[in-house]
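Progress against Task 2.4 (sequence-to-structure conversion) is shown through the following example record, which the project officer requested during the mid-term review.
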Amino acid sequence: MFFRDISVCSAFPWAEQNVQNDSNVHNTKIPEKRNFYTGEDLVRYSIMSSKPSLLEKLKSDDPKISLVRDILSVIIIVAVIGAVLFGVSGTWPAIVAVESGSMVPNMNVGDLIFVVEENRFGPLMTSLEAQAANVTSFGGYGDVIIYQPNGNSQVTPIIHRALGEINESTALEAGLANGGYITKGDHNPTIDQGNIFTSVGMMQPVKDEWVVGKALFAIPLVGYLPLHIWEFAVVVIIILIAWELYSRRKEKAKEDAKKPQKKGKK
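Structure tokens generated for the chain above:
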């Protein structure tokens, strides 16, 4: 409630105007709060509630949505497998495919190699250390390591056996730039170090930070899939589309069979 003081208004003429303005505000009718829904509100709510959620859309039988659903399922499965592999191996990539015959006969083209961190399941052992301990790996003494040649991550990693390790001074005496592991393919006549590669130049001893991991076991032939990943992906997508079309046609045939047939005129 507003009170008007005559003495104040006469002493301060501007106060009377403010009081009058306040009275106008006070006398303004405030709309009452509605405690009910109109027909328009119910229609609007009905339209909003009738919109399908994303989950309902994914459950649709529409061919395009079904295809998207199948592709998403494949991606999720691959992601889960990748996460499990990384958790077990401790490195990435956790699997590599053999692309050349440099490790024949102990590793062949198309073998899928499971890779683990270099000191997982025991320390990395060179050929000299493995001979002393009488421990073999992939048909020979010494761990087979996967490494980035000269630390270049843009080049395909090399998978060769670690023969030994030299220090910095020994490497410099041999005309090499740094110390590290000396490696060799089982099928190759010479060691990697000192050879010239078009992609990286003269191969240097393998530093610890260049090692991706060591080979744990191999699965024959399965490595052809990642070697031809794009071709494989296209084949999988074609199979998914063909299966979807076949399933829809089969479902439609069942629905048609359930429909009552119209009897002809006698």
